[in-house]
Records
---
Amino acid sequence: GYAPTTTYSVHWLADPGFHDAVARYLEDEREAVAAESQALLDYTPFKKGH
């Protein structure tokens, strides 16, 4: 098993239209990743709070 860990990255997109499209996609993805991470944490074999 593993416990999910949030990571971050920074990218620069020169094309404003592409930048906006990626930004909209990432808004939705953040929510999905947060939900999946919580679901995985709920079933981790590790003790909570230690």
Note: The longest helix spans residues 16-42.
---
Amino acid sequence: MKIEQINAKVQSYLAAKDLIKKKQETWQNKIRDLIFDLLKNLSLNSDLPARAELNDAVENHNSVILVLNDEVTNFRDHFTGKRFIKKGGSLIFAQLKNGNIMTVIKKPELPELGSDYENLIIGKEYPPESLNSNVVLDIVGDFIDKMIEWENSQDRGQIGF
């Protein structure tokens, strides 16, 4: 390989790193807050029993999460009398190492009755600049459709729930 070819590869490498940095800045300075504000507004101004959370413990690897509230079920432990709690599902917008944003849907679960092995649905990957209010609300609509599907489903891989 010639030095010119190496230099061309180095320039491609540096351009890739620069693009990632720009995506991270777009997420940090604009898109993360847009998504959080939309989800918070939705949770406060609709009947959806949910809350918005911001997980920013790791710089440039943040996530914004719409979490459905936990619910007490009609299932009760015969010995303790304790009712089982259904852990609400969630919609996660997480920044990947390449700067793009990935969506993940976590289905509701009832830990006392076992775990659903297909609990996560990996969604699409979006460049941060492609996310706007309309796109985010469409993703939330898809999430709610998945939650309706889960609630109405008979085949959950769990006995009785």
Note: The two ends are 61 Å apart (CA to CA).
---
Amino acid sequence: MVSVTLAATVPVMANGGGSTGKSDVAVLYLSGTPREMGLQYGAMAKDAIVENIAQFWGWVAERGLSKDALIADALADESLLPLFAVEELKGMAKTSGVPYGELLAFNEFGDDDLQQHACTCFIAAGTGTVDGRAISSKNRDLNNMQVLLLVEPDDGYKFIGMMSAGALGVSQGINEMGVAIGHTWMPVPEYYEAGYSPFLVNQIVMEQSADVSKSIALISELPKAEGATFVLSDPSVAAFVETVPSVINSPDTVWQVLADGVGVHTNHYVMEPFHSWVMDGFGYFWTVSFARYDRGLELIAENPVVDAPKVIEFTRDLENWGCGSPGEVIDAHPEIPEDTWCYGWPGYSICNARTVSASVFCCDDQYPEEMSTMWMAINNPAWSPYVPLHNGILDELPLAGELLSDYVSGYAWSTSSKLRSTGEWGELIPTFEAWEAVKSAENVVNEDAARSLLSDEDVAGACLLLTEADGAIAQDGVALMESLFDSSAEAELLVVPRD
């Protein structure tokens, strides 16, 4: 079954996209009915959606698979989808120009085969952070163009998120209550007819949860189609939540709440009973997951107390980049039965060639609904800068969407992708770090001003200030990437045009 989203999202209509009953101006954020959401999303990220679909069909052709057969299979599964998801995809098809059957196939099969099933996440809380405020992070590893989503549900909390253009759900994000979520894929059998994808679970949590406790309860209650580990944080605590497909076991969820310290998770089960299941041969242990996990533990041992800049460093870590030695990983873990190992693709470093986005979430305990921050790298953090997005911008969505239009359209992601052909791997990181140091200092000044307004109960003024400040930094980030690109180099991906 296809990954699906909740009925929830979109705003204003893009030129030439048909009518949603709203003003005929550029799509900037998402709100409304499922049909409206699809129309708006398709118009907002049309070029990025077209590129992702083209990449998917290229993958299909390279493997000698039948495009027509995959579309037929996806259409046959349509009855498994709730009506709101069908309506959303049909709306997206209309304004993106991608046929409905192709979008169905991309959502059903692209998630399994084109995306690389990886990711690395860190959490920290209490004595593990410089200021006691909880932190979480996610590196997303796959092969699709990412877009920023600014979402105002009809019935639920507003949130900021990132996702593959044309795919339904949310990869990672933070809501207006200061709750952040992401997930990593876990290698167990998948049963799509039995529940929701992790991306949909993420969106439900964004829309319905005001803290980590509620988030864990929701994840536990929802029927789940795949194995995943969810990473959560709110202003007080952080957590890892391991899950298996609901048809496999009840309960299908275990978790670890972290009040103090720093933790890491990759793509193998570490909690019981699921760890023992894999030891007994259900699923497998992945050498690349252990390589990233072991490296994460090393970073934590070296840095037992962290802040956002330090976790950003973690997300850019290149140790074991390329293809590390699976034999060394296996030898380092004699406790793992030999017949449970799997090698997989060469994603041995935390930041690797298939990382396509990253986020570091800092949840504010004093003003969680305005000052909680998503530090966002719209693309691989080795070739894109981090920019701050405070959840207070959700109170200024029209302006936020305008200022962040390069991110919601896919332009920022594709501009960053061109930097892959500029210099050696990781060569640009010092440039980004120097730029981020300057912008972080600006951000401190902006936050101090916003806190002063909030202490005077001027919430509207604080949110406007944060929106303008975050938007300016984000625009400067795009300008930085443009300035670094050698125009004589050939871009590896389609360049999404700027409107």
Note: The longest helix spans residues 429-455.
---
Amino acid sequence: MASTSLQAPAKICFILIKLYSPYAFLSKYLGAILLSFFCYYAKEIGCNNLTLSVWNDNEGALRFYQRQGMKPQETTMEMIID
């Protein structure tokens, strides 16, 4: 009897920790070029998704990543305790 697996394929994630563009390079496609490179590199090393974090207040970055095809996946909550 042949066995079938009901498990989804393993998710191998490339996590991009920081991606900053100097102000002078905003709207010059540098961010899109860098993100494209990281996606290419992640795929080359066997990853099937790329994850990064963006501050909620950084509306420009949120728009940029959404234009690049990224979608929100989770929300991280924080409370400052003194």
Note: Residues 13-67 form one domain.
